[in-house]
Amino acid sequence: MRSLDPFDYFEPEDIREASELLSAKGEKACILAGGIDLIPRLRKRMLEADHVINIQKIPMMDSISFISGKGLTFGAMTRLRSLEKSSLVQDEFLILYEAIHQIASTQVKFMGTAVGNLCVGTPASDLSTVMIALDAQLTIANAEGQRNVPLSEFYLDYYRTDLEPGELVTHVFLPIPHNGTGTAFMNLVRTRADIAKVSVAVSLSVKNGVCSENRIAVGAAAPTVFRASKAETLLKGRKINTEVIQEAAKAAAEQTQPITDLRSTAGYRKEMTRVLVGRTLEMAHERARLQDEEAHP
Amino acid sequence: MKNEIVHFIVNGRPYEVIITPNITLSELLREQLDLTGTKSACGIGECGSCTVLVDGHPTLSCSTLAIAVRDKDILTIEGLSNREALHPLQQAFIETGAIQCGFCTPGMIMSAKALLDKQPDPSTEAIKEALGSNLCRCTGYVKIIDAVTSAAAFMRKGEK
Q1: What CATH number has the domain bearing residue A36?
Q2: Per-residue model confidence (pLDDT) at position A183
Q3: DSSP symbol at A261
Q4: Would you place residue A97 in the very low, low, confident or very high pLDDT band (cuts 50, 70, 90)?
Q5: Are A49 and A81 found together in one domain?
Q6: H or E stretch including B60?
Q7: Strand A29-32 to strand A51-54: parallel, antiparallel, or no bridges (unpaired)?
Q8: Which one of A186, A201, A243, B99 is CB 3.0 to 4.6 Å from A133, fit for a cystine?
Q9: What pTM, to 2 d.p., does this model score?
Q10: pLDDT band at A192, cuts 50/70/90?
Q11: A168 and A68 assigned to the same domain
């Protein structure tokens, strides 16, 4: 097995130092968080790094905290395992728990970070799909300070994100869903250890049977994870029933730009997007209805 | 890239070594510390045979930079036995016949150790989950799961 090519190694003590190093070292500087994506890509020579900047030693970056009435925030070093085991995540962000729980590798969950997964920029990230449905907001640090970006606007193209050279994601914020909101996540995989052929996550808010708000995120069916905006518009303000859901599912499938590869054909991915969007909306509707009934018995 | 003098604690024993930052933990263990019990196979974090424990957590040593885990508590398969008797997991793997070629065994046992340290009485489902990313290419997983179950039972008895 080939060793990694040589690089210079840094362990910044705070975020400012990390972003200064990133800007100073230029495009061949890489952030090391969990290492799950970075080290194999360096070994396979899919990525060149002259400088590796390890952010594991920055204090508080692995914390998960709850802002009462607002939502949950976690740092760039928060491991998948910590999120999976967090009762806050299990109680308030069920689909995030479900998406992490189905990851087959225990080692990956202990080592890997959620932010690292989001920053890879692969369209087949279940985590990106779920977090877009949950309306995740990213905090990005740079030499000037910081900026916030909705995750749904973070992906520009296949493996390309909105991160400029010298920038790194430091935190993720997930707003608490409104009362009467149901969420659901489903994916299709060959085996549990493989990445998805298609994955879909939805969030559906229902008031008196009418959809007040919704987000539909589709993964592995286009160059990036995307929001099925036509389907979302179609649902908003409508009374939710099977016909409306099927209409939305069809609209979501129309918005895919799938490819054919060893996992699936483009046609199958498109058709399965329709099926999964239909099923996740049905499930989210059921979960929303139960919530709504609890709130107004 | 410069050489650095780095301190490691492996199996409770301190080491001082000169390394470059591009050395992974599996390379450090196997090539510099002569701890070849840890196996190196896929090199990209997919097979689990390089699993060791870092501060008690199951960790893929092929995807970990050695320099990043200096001063942490590293446990490898060599650190399991007390030199007089095998660890109950090692004994159970032998007795159950959970070994064929043996290449996946150190990783399997380290993943199982991490599980039993936290969950002394795991369900079959929990064992499958803990070993979910440790691949065996010889035969199958039934005897491996049996071995972990029987080691867990043995260890619980020992504690009473």
Answers
A1: 3.30.43.10
A2: 97
A3: B
A4: very high
A5: no
A6: strand B57-60
A7: parallel
A8: A201
A9: 0.94
A10: confident
A11: yes
Interface of B with A in 19-48 (CB under 8 A): 20-24, 27, 40, 43-46, 48
Of B45, B48, B130, the CB nearest to A36: B45
Does A119 have pLDDT greater than 80? yes
CA distances from B17 to A194, A272, B4 (A): 38, 54, 8
Task: Give residue for tokens 């508080």.
Answer: A60
Picking from A117, A269, A104, A118, the residue whose alpha carbon sits closest to that of residue A200 is A269
For A38, which residue in chain B has the nearest alpha carbon?
B63
A129: exposed, middle or buried (Cβ count in 10 Å: 0-12, 13-18, 19+): buried
Q: How many CB atoms lie within 10 A of CB A209?
A: 13
A49, burial (CB in 10 Å: exposed 0-12, middle 13-18, buried 19+): buried
Task: Say if CB A184 and CB A206 are below 8 A apart.
Answer: no
Instruction: Give the CATH class of B88-159.
Output: mainly alpha
Q: What is the pLDDT of residue B160?
A: 55
Name the domain boundary from A158, A175, A192.
Answer: A175
Domain boundary among A124, A152, A175: A175
Question: In tens digits, what is the pLDDT along chain B, a chain of 160 residues?
Answer: 789 999 999 999 999 999 999 999 999 999 999 999 999 999 999 999 999 999 999 999 999 999 999 989 999 999 999 888 999 999 999 999 999 999 999 999 999 999 999 999 999 999 999 999 999 999 789 999 999 999 999 999 986 5
Task: Say whether B44 and A193 touch across the interface (CB within 8 A).
Answer: no
Taking an 8 Å cut-off on Cβ atoms, the answer to whether A1 and B43 are in contact is: yes
For residue B2, what is the nearest residue in chain A, using CA coordinates? A8
A244 near B CB under 8 A:
no
Task: Classify A45 in phi/psi space as left (phi over 0), alpha (psi -120 to 50) or beta.
Answer: left
Q: Where in chain B is the domain with CATH 3.10.20.30?
A: 4-79
Instruction: Report whether pLDDT(A291) > 90.
Output: no
Q: Are residues A195 and A288 in the same domain?
A: yes
When scoring B30, B61, B65 by the number of chain A Cβ atoms within 10 A, the one with the most, hence best to mutate, is: B65
Q: What's the CATH number for B4-79?
A: 3.10.20.30
